[in-house]
UniProtKB/TrEMBL annotation:
Organism: Ambrosia artemisiifolia
Top-level taxon: Eukaryota
Phylogenetic placement of the source organism: Eukaryota, Viridiplantae, Streptophyta, Embryophyta, Tracheophyta
Example of a GO biological process term: cellular response to phosphate starvation
InterPro entries: SPX_dom (IPR004331), SPX_prot (IPR031142)
Domain SPX: 1-148
Name this polypeptide is given: SPX domain-containing protein
Length: 246
């Protein structure tokens, strides 16, 4: 699948509030075509670079806002787990209900973080592809210098979010039986239609795997191959996925 179609499909599948935050690949592609046939090359390149910088600013602002929110939510979840484990519930039923709510919140939280990592991957890939297209059509040498700049941007730096994702998976594996999580995820595939976090997370995992493993034009600008962690949560996602693995 061509990147433009893959990006369009992914944007349609992601959370509604995120859809305007992705790379405007279609308009940038049109601009590259116009520049390649323009007599005012210098002016056109300046406009192209200006639009790319605006896209980077948009990515960074959105990514940092989400990252800050995730840090706060992670601490709150840890505090909730600690309170439940240290307090004396009035009944076993009350304890199980609270743990069920925590389990659901952790799974949703994990899903949103996976979506953010995918947000970084797909926007970086789009940048690399549109710059490659620009250099090829215009004979320019913009890609190398601009990609070096992209690699230093906050939206490309996913180490903290990836660390929180792993901690989330470890927490679920330690606190909740695999069968319990699997049942909840199975229910999610039935009840969460269209905008569900579960479906979006599975789609994001498959998109990341395709982007990082499946390209026939791998280069030093490409992201490294993706190896999904072997945790119970990831295995539950794959077992219950309504989307075929790539």
């Amino acid at each position: 699948m061509k990147f433009g179609k893959r990006l369009k499909q992914h944007v349609e599948e992601t959370l509604p509030g995120w859809r305007d935050m992705y790379l405007n690949y279609k308009d940038l592609k049109k601009l590259v075509r116009l520049i390649s046939s323009s007599l005012e090359y210098g002016k056109s390149e300046a406009e192209f670079v200006y639009l790319l910088n605006n896209e980077i600013d948009k990515f960074n602002m959105f990514f940092m806002e989400q990252e800050e929110d995730f840090i706060i939510r992670h601490k709150e979840l840890q505090q909730r787990i600690k309170r439940v484990n240290e307090s004396e519930p009035s009944s076993q039923e009350e304890y199980e209900e609270e743990m069920s709510r925590i389990r659901k919140d952790i799974v949703d939280f994990h899903g949103e973080m996976v979506l953010l990592v995918n947000y970084s991957n797909i926007n970086y890939t789009g940048m690399a592809k549109i710059l490659k297209k620009y250099d090829k059509r215009t004979g320019g040498l913009l890609r190398l210098a601009f990609i070096q700049k992209v690699l230093e941007q906050p939206f490309f730096t996913t180490e903290l979010v990836s660390k929180l994702v792993k901690e989330c998976e470890t927490t679920i594996d330690e606190l909740f039986p695999t069968a319990m999580v699997a049942v909840e995820l199975k229910d999610a595939t039935i009840t969460m239609v269209g905008e569900g976090i579960f479906r979006n997370t599975v789609a994001a995992l498959m998109t990341m795997k395709e982007i990082r493993n499946g390209s026939s034009t791998q280069s030093h600008f490409s992201l490294p191959a993706l190896s999904l962690p072997d945790t119970e949560l990831i295995r539950s996602f794959q077992l219950n996925s309504p989307i075929p693995s790539i």
